[in-house]
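TA notes. Do not distribute before section.
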Amino acid sequence: MKRAVTLLEIVLVLVIMGILGYIGVYSYHPNYLAQDSHFVLMQLLRTKYQGVNYDKRYASMSSDLNSSIGCIDLRDEEWNETAARLHYRLHSTIHNISGHDVLCFDRYGRAVFDDNLTRSFISSKQDILQLTYNGEDLNFSVLPVSGYVIISK
């Protein structure tokens, strides 16, 4: 004797699946602070590698000198413009805590707070940016000689 599935059983299974799906979708909360910190870190690393690949000493001998290569604008409003240009939406608030507007890297990867690389280099670990989202903070620091970027809470 074959037993068929009734319409009531199918509806009951679909209702249970709908409830579980509803709970699953609304319990997922993306970690916007981590996503935004990855975006900022990638922009800082991209700038560092551009500075390493572009030697301004030799470029100054020709008319090809571009002082913005290897430099990034640290102003708060500039980060939103950069994110919009790259089709990314920042959820965190970014604050420039360095007191300088521009961070540059020379051909050795060393960091300096001016696009005129004749200034003195960073002599100690320097906090440059702070990301804030829902009361949580992340600080970005640059090490003096290596130009490494460190993210800390």
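Switch to the second chain here.
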Amino acid sequence: MESRSCKPHEFKAHENDFAGEPNFKCEKCDVIISAWEMTWYRRGLEHAENKVTSSEFLANLNEYLDEEVMKVDGFDNAIIGIVSRCGFESVLCYSREKIIDVLMNRDGMDSEEAAEYYDFNIAGSYVGKGTPMFLDTGF
């Protein structure tokens, strides 16, 4: 069985979704993403290829963010972008996998401990309307 999280993905245009928007499918692992997700995937690749530091990335994000946006202390390297939707303020978006990697490498947790800590203490916390969102790409 092929991995559902191959790196790097090899996306090609795929059939349209229910609203007529194009989708993209990875030829290696069959992951399907929307055109909007493809935009963020490409931005993430550009971010990685340019080797932009987390502090530079955060400085660039400040122009988009409201003062009430919350950060998860100690996990700046896990920030992958911003998330916005109609009627809501933009918030930071963190990678679940990167947070778990930090917990394992920095704090010495095994993968099960790190996932449990993440679920209950990070993703399970609501701290107001600027609470970050978390993206899980390891499905």
